[in-house]
UniProtKB/TrEMBL annotation:
<keyword id="KW-0812">Transmembrane</keyword>
<feature type="domain" description="Cytochrome c">
    <location>
        <begin position="38"/>
        <end position="146"/>
    </location>
</feature>
<keyword id="KW-0479">Metal-binding</keyword>
<feature type="transmembrane region" description="Helical">
    <location>
        <begin position="7"/>
        <end position="23"/>
    </location>
</feature>
<keyword id="KW-0349">Heme</keyword>
<dbReference type="InterPro" id="IPR051459">
    <property type="entry name" value="Cytochrome_c-type_DH"/>
</dbReference>
<feature type="domain" description="Cytochrome c">
    <location>
        <begin position="187"/>
        <end position="293"/>
    </location>
</feature>
<keyword id="KW-1133">Transmembrane helix</keyword>
<dbReference type="Pfam" id="PF00034">
    <property type="entry name" value="Cytochrom_C"/>
</dbReference>
<keyword id="KW-0472">Membrane</keyword>
<dbReference type="InterPro" id="IPR009056">
    <property type="entry name" value="Cyt_c-like_dom"/>
</dbReference>
<keyword id="KW-0408">Iron</keyword>
<dbReference type="InterPro" id="IPR036909">
    <property type="entry name" value="Cyt_c-like_dom_sf"/>
</dbReference>
<protein>
    <submittedName>
        <fullName>Cytochrome c</fullName>
    </submittedName>
</protein>
Length: 296
């Protein structure tokens, strides 16, 4: 019996060790960004394309207050309620002490400077496709923004979702390389794909999710229920979005639909962001949406 117990203990220890090796947080090599230099001017475009202010500024912020990234917005979901953290330039409450590699690990790998998995409510499943130069440029721009000492709120997440190590398994399942929409795309469509699938993370809202919260890429941008339980995100594939390319560009610029309705809800914040991009980028997003496979 003692031998059996010892054998069981050894197997259990080995099993735990192997499991940890599989799900442990994985960061980028230390020299990943060694040849890159950030440009704050380019980083501002990355900031608006990435929608940073939409989640990390106060929900009622307007004008320059959009650049005070003190966090605090809450995002209810079936897994708990997540609170957007302070990512202002404050070195204690925010990310003022972060370097470029810290930001790259957060966006590309979903790992904090302390070596913990981030919850995927932070859309690193999309940001993982971001160009490293864009990440470095974004860090340069974030360094120019105001510092705010407001402490980040704690997520309201219960067992078992509060076990962050389990997110390593989630990443193995859902953190994928490669583009969803592939094939012979024009240069404009490729730019639109980058903005929509990576920086703009359109799929995070407009793609339905499975029971584990992973995006169902087979129904890319086909819409789905709002995680808070009220309403639905619309289908923006050609199966439902029959607007012209010019209509889509206008919507991403002014927020007006072809029927002279106006954008509402959280999408209004998205349009505030896209309106700040060059018109060529809005046209690229429109061109990309025309190439997305139709899905009911």
């Amino acid at each position: 019996m003692r031998r059996i117990l010892r054998l069981f203990l050894v197997v259990a220890i080995v099993g735990l060790g192997v499991t940890y090796l599989v799900v442990r947080p994985r960061t980028l090599p230390a020299d990943t960004l060694s040849r890159l230099t950030g440009d704050a001017g380019r980083g501002e475009l990355v900031f608006w394309a990435g929608g940073c202010a939409s989640c990390h500024a106060d929900a009622k912020a307007t004008g320059d207050d959009k650049l005070v990234l003190k966090g605090g917005q809450s995002f209810p979901s079936p897994f708990g309620t997540f609170i957007a953290p302070n990512i202002s330039n404050d070195p204690i409450a925010g990310i003022g002490a972060w370097n470029e590699l810290d930001l790259a690990n957060a966006m590309i790998r979903g790992v904090s400077p302390e070596g913990q998995h981030y919850y995927p409510v932070f859309p690193y499943a999309s940001y993982a496709k971001a160009d490293l130069q864009d990440v470095v440029d974004l860090r340069a721009f974030l360094a120019t923004l105001p510092a705010d000492p407001t402490p980040s709120g704690a997520h309201e997440v219960g067992f078992p979702f509060n076990i962050r190590l389990s997110l390593g398994g989630w990443k193995l399942l859902f953190l994928k390389d490669g583009w969803v929409v592939d094939g012979d795309l024009t240069e404009e469509e490729q730019r639109g794909r980058y903005l929509a699938e990576a920086l703009g993370h359109c799929g995070e809202c407009h793609t339905p999710r499975n029971a584990l919260g992973g995006m169902e890429s087979a129904r890319w941008l086909a819409g789905g229920p709002v995680p808070a339980g009220r309403g639905n995100f619309p289908n923006i594939t050609p199966a439902k979005l029959d607007w012209s390319k010019a209509d889509i560009v206008e919507y991403l610029t002014s927020g007006f639909t072809p029927d002279f309705d106006s954008v509402g809800g959280h999408m209004a914040l998205v349009v505030e962001n896209t309106a700040r991009l060059p018109e060529a980028d809005r046209a690229a997003i429109a061109a990309y949406l025309k190439r997305v496979p139709a899905s009911e």
